[in-house]
Amino acid sequence: MARSAMLRRLGGALTALLLALPLAATGEGEVLPFSNLELAEPQRHFSATQECVEPEDEMRRNHMEYILHQRDETMHEGVRTRQYSLEECINCHASKDDSGEYIRVEDTRHFCATCHTYAAVKIDCFQCHADVPVRESSLHSRQTGASPHRAAQAAPAQPSGMTLQLMAAEDNPQ
Amino acid sequence: MSDTSRKMDPSRREFMSRAGAAAGAAAIAPGVFLTAPAAAKPLDQPVTSDKRWGILVDTNKCADGCSACVSACETENGWGSAVDSEQRSSPQQKAQWIRKVQIREKATGYVTTLPLMCQHCETPPCADVCPTGASFRRADGIVLVDKHICIGCRYCMMACPYKARSFNHQDLKDQKPWAPRGKGTVESCTMCVQRVDHGGTPACVEACSAENHNALVFGDLHDENSQISQQLKKHGGKEIRGDLDLNTGVRYRGL
How far apart are the first and last CA of chain B? Predict the structure, then answer.
């Protein structure tokens, strides 16, 4: 007897809960999680006249591979080409705020932080490396064309068909 | 691709081939070698063991009370008084890439001063004990810490007979792009590798010359005609703790 009474009470409670749910969901002033998160657009630095060191779609997906490769070559072998050096990434991609100060990496408007905040990728590059330009870029003056990776005047690579599809999907979200 | 797994310390095989090469070179004629004269390395080429960078310190010229070499290193590499970091570390903990050491002879009271930094050993004990391969010796003899691999265990600091290494205890900001340093990693004199790779001279050597003391000479120990080799040949140069047979790249005269 006691068991059936308990079941009846449980059923009543469940019904009440189900009735109450839609009321709660349509409550006034409700804020969805992360809906007020503001992310800065990465500043575009490249155009048809000024390219990045590799095509933009390639850099978007594989920039870390280039930096890692350069890192080991420079650290262990003393190769000092500037093509894929992190310092040159910063020299080119750093942007300034309204007061003319360089934006630091802790700020989500920093070029690296814009994407990495959005993608929730925690990078530790800038615990050691400079996150703002310190000295003039020497990429172009030092580029002799003797780079093992890429000649100074290489023909721009064509993005693959799949990459183009992905880019189109990114540019025109449905 | 870079091969970071390559062993940097000289093996028996390497020793034998070097010994053979030396014997072969000597057989041609005394003082005549089949090696090309020293030329600046192209920036896109890896360093080779054709060169062995070294510094010769003349303690007779090293002035008491002068610490131009230390200040120059601080400014170049962004540590110590040159930067506003490590405020919470005690003086014993703070980074010290190069230090001035004073030696007083007890009997006579004669005082010698000298700069002491990483001695860039040919067989570095720091690299021997490193569990991750972060401490290594570059092909041209410069001993470095790859901070990407360093786990901060500090075995190398204990192994180094020269107390040449420091550990970063706190978060740093505004490091030099050419000398990255960070919390949780060990660091030491890099022989200003960023300058050497561009054909330059370490900051300490430059500063000593600027002070007109000329107590430091930098150069290629493998090049017979370099200033450092000539001076070593003429006046000799001691290793500190030579009994350890480390074949250091930094030599001292007047000790």
Answer: 45
A contacts of B146 (beta carbons < 8 Å): 75-76
SS (H, E, C) B134-192: CEEECCCCCEEECCCCCCCCCHHHHHCCCCCCEECCCCCCCCECCECCCCCCEECCCCC
Does residue A19 lie within any of the structural domains?
Answer: no
Domain hosting A97: range is 45-141
Whether this model's ipTM surpasses 0.90 comes out as no
What is the tens place of the pLDDT at every residue in B135-147?
Answer: 999 999 999 999 9
Instruction: Please name each of the domains of chain B with its CATH number.
Output: 48-253 (3.30.70.20)
Q: What is the pLDDT of residues A105-115, one digit of tens each?
A: 998 889 999 88
Average pLDDT of chain A to the nearest whole number:
72
Chain B residues closer than 8 Å to A78 by CB: 41, 46-47, 138, 140, 193, 197
Q: Answer yes or no: is A96 within a domain.
A: yes
pTM: 0.73
